[in-house]
Structure formats: structure tokens, C-alpha cells
Amino acid sequence: MKPSFTLGIEEEYQTVDPETRDLRSHIHAEIIEKGKLLMQERVKAEMHQSVVEVGTSVCANIKDANDELKKLRRHMIRLSKENGLLLASAATHPFADWRMQEVTPDERYKNIVQDMQLVARANLIFGLHVHVGVEDREIAIHLMNHARYFVPHLLALSTNSPFWLGMDTGLKSYRCKVFDKFPRTNLPDFFPSWGEYENYVKLLVKTNSIDNAKKIWWDIRPHPFFDTLEFRVCDIPMRVEETIALAALIQATVAKLYKLYSQNQGFRMYRRSLLMENKWRAARYGINGKLIDFGKQKEVPERELIEEYLAFVDDVLDELDSRAEVEYIRTMMKNGTGADRQLRVFQETGDMKAVVDYIIEETEAGIDKDEIDTLPAAKAV
Known about the structure:
seven-stranded antiparallel β-sheet, 15 helices
């Protein structure tokens, strides 16, 4: 059965104090409760009280996903401002201290903290998750095996977390280094079949390592409850157009790999240890470094590899009606990733608060301000 290639997009935002520019809990403002009056279950809390997540419904194509995600952002920007907060879209806060942030009072998060202790408490990061509909689980595991190659490229394009605890980390994505302290993260191994993957999950459950497959937090995974391949590697970008471009590229990647699969072809597979070399380079240098071309066995500028990547997926873009959205990847390369732009602001100002202000401005860019002002307010029912 041919996959549907439907899309679901999840974004995790920061709630920021307008005076201090530090993270501030949204719990007492009841933003989640008010958000659910407007957006039903498409908004939810996360482990830390200064994190709020939105997720689209199942979207038939990237155009629908774009419309819905912009609507969700508009609502969250409006709700935040109405309740004395600002919304920021970056994968780490430039100077917030995780030790000062409270954990959301929820049994699930309490259990995670109990299990992983300081590793969980320090996990004050913000990501982008993209689901692509692949209904046949055997096909899904096959496509995951091949899609692993592109994970470092996607990370490089999304990098938006150069700062941690008020310091320039020297990395373009420090978020992924915070997260890989969790177990069962980073790139998955190769699985020859869905049955092999199921046996792996069953063994972990049997040995009390996990209670369900949601606690497998790989960069790309078959979602345990939805018939999707979920890409979890990306930093959340600042601009909504960047999120849409990355989602379109991810969808196109899955569609192209399926096209090869349906023609009894495939993309060359490499060891996880080799792919992890490229992931490190992507986290360290973003789009301005070099990744390894394993076929040529040499380093190649990441920007050249991204152009090759875009050429690779080109023949599925018209069928997906996503050519314009994927083309925005070139705008991202021209302007620099979120990490590049954050660093530029800090180099110009020397002020971390100025970086936060810039992130907030970029979070609202591409969202019609007049529409934000005319959105209906959330009312108790």
C-alpha cells in the first residue's frame, strides 16, 4: 500500500517574561487551559513549566500544514501577550538556568524525573517533530533505515541553539547534546524488518527498561501509536517559514525513498557509527561546516551536500505540491540558520537580552500582526 505522506507538525515554544527576558512559567496564567478552548487538544504542557507545545492535526499536504501551523502560532502569541508573557521559538534559551525552572505537576513527568533524575531536570530544550504518514509498518521500518542518512543534513539546516546558561557553546545545536544524555536517543540502528524492531521493543518492556515504545526517543522513529515516521532531530526554528520548509523537505525525503523502494531500488546504507560522525559535525558547525561524503570518502562543504539533497528529492516535489516550500531551504542557506543569526546579534550587541528580543521578533515574523490583534479571546465555558 502506497503511503499517504500526510503531515503532522509539533513545535515546542518558550514562554518568556517581558521584563527580565528570562523563561517564566505559564502555569499560573492557565495558557494551556485557555489554549484548549481555542485549539482543543492541539496545545499541551511539556515537562518544564516554561515550555508549551502545539501540534497540527493530520494534514493532507504541506499547504494545509502551513495554514494550520500559522494559525496555532497566532493563537499562542496572542494568548501569551494577553497573559503577560511573550512567545519565543528557539531550541535553547540564551541564558535561562534550568535549575530555576519548575517541572509541570503531572504524573508522567514526575515518573520521568524519578527515573532519570538530573538528566531529566536539565533537559530544558525545545524541538520540532514532523510526522509523515506511512501506514504499512514494514515499509516504515525500511524507509527509516534509509532516511537515517539525511538526519545530519536536517539537523544542520535547523540549528538554533548556540547558547546555554549565558555562554556561547561553540556549537550550532547545543540542544542535541543536552538531549543525548537521555537513553535511547540519537540515530537508530539498522533493523532488517518490522518484526526485528518489535522484538527489540518487547525485550525492553520485558526487562523493565521502558513501559512502552514512546520512551524510545531516536532522531527518527516509527511512532508507537500513529502510522507515521516521526522525525525528531530538528531544533525548533525561529520563523514559521523555516519549520514549513523543513517539514516539506522531510516529507519529500520519505516520498523519494518510497519511490526508490517501489522500483526495487534503495539508497546506500552506512553504519550508524559513520552517520553519527556527520551528526556531530552538523551540531558543531551547522550549514557552514563540512560533512563526510561516504561514497567519495572525503569531506564536502555542507552547503554543497544540501544542494545535492535538494536535487535528490526534486522529482517528487510537484506530485507533493511542495516545490515552493522546499525552495525556501535556499533562502535559509542565504540568511543563515537560527543559530547563525542569534550569534550575529550577540556579536553586534554583546547582550543576551537583545538575542531574546530578536528571537521573539523572528517568532512573530510571517504571522500577520493584524490577525493576531483580531483573534477571539479565550473565554471560560
